[in-house]
Design a protein that fits this description.
Helix content of chain B: under 10%
Mean pLDDT of chain A: 91
Number of helices of chain A: 0
Order of helices and strands of chain B: EEEEEEEEEEE
Order of helices and strands of chain A: EEEEEEEEEEE
Largest sheet of chain B: 6 strands, mixed
Largest interface: A-B, 30 and 25 residues
Shape of chain A: globular
Number of strands of chain B: 11
Largest sheet of chain A: 7 strands, mixed
Mean pLDDT of chain B: 89
Radius of gyration of chain A: 14 Å
Number of strands of chain A: 11
Number of helices of chain B: 0
Strand content of chain A: over 45%
Oligomer: heterodimer
Shape of chain B: globular
Low-confidence stretches of chain B: none
């Protein structure tokens, strides 16, 4: 069983640019959630994807968007980058099925620095 | 509203017990989790408790839940230097347990030899 993987591990961008972060779910999982963790803070929920559709969104502007693919991997896209977007971006996968515990397992994260 | 609070820092000596505390505000929480984050790494799930339980033990870890006071604690017995990390408590409030986790700001545990 493979765990959650994310790429790239580190990224440096400048203000106004666009970025795409990638996540591969743990084997057998069908749901992906994305979180932003600013330095010294707990993770903040961005959104979740289930069966290729957005299934809940946190308090993030529309320039944060995502995709989930048929193999359940996922992308997080951020347009018009701002300095405050500098953070660790975490992806978590889980298995959504009725009546069962759907624990989220996290990847190692992508550290984004916006200059 | 949704809010999870933790104390920011705890220092213990190797071999002692550590107790990390957390309070949450949403009474509809269904599952409560403890995650561990080592420097430069993602989050590792340590344990979880369902909201209709008041205690769960898993090897060196004991989770206590006081639902009336909305208080959750994680006790680590025989704390080791390898336990040094940031510990996050998180709540899941949606009935089906899909959707977001609400995290606290994390407690840094320092274990002195």
């Amino acid at each position: 069983e493979t765990g959650v993987t994310q790429s790239p591990t580190h990224l440096i961008k400048t203000r106004g640019q666009q970025v795409t972060l990638r996540c591969s779910s743990q084997s057998g999982h069908n749901t992906v959630s994305w979180y932003q963790q600013a330095l010294g803070q707990g993770p903040q929920f961005i959104f979740q994807y289930y069966r290729e559709e957005e299934n809940g969104r946190g308090n993030f502007p529309p320039r944060f968007s995502g995709l989930q693919f048929p193999n359940y991997s996922s992308e997080l896209n951020v347009n018009a980058l701002e300095l405050d977007d500098s953070a660790l971006y975490l992806c978590a996968s889980s298995l959504a099925s009725s009546g069962s515990l759907e624990t989220q397992y996290f990847g190692p994260g992508t550290r984004l620095l916006v200059l | 509203g949704e809010d999870v609070e933790q104390s920011l820092f705890l220092s213990v000596r190797e071999g002692d017990s550590s107790v990390i505390n957390c309070t949450y505000t949403d009474s509809s929480s269904t599952y409560l989790y403890w995650y561990k984050q080592e420097p430069g790494a993602g989050l590792q799930l340590l344990t979880y408790i369902f909201s209709n339980m008041d205690m769960k033990q898993d090897q060196r870890l004991t989770v206590l839940l006081n639902k009336k006071d909305k208080h959750l604690s994680l006790r680590i017995a025989d704390t080791q230097t390898g336990d040094s990390a940031i510990y996050f408590c998180a709540e899941s409030i949606t009935p089906s347990n899909t959707g977001k986790l609400i995290f606290g700001q994390g407690t840094t545990l320092q274990v002195k030899p």
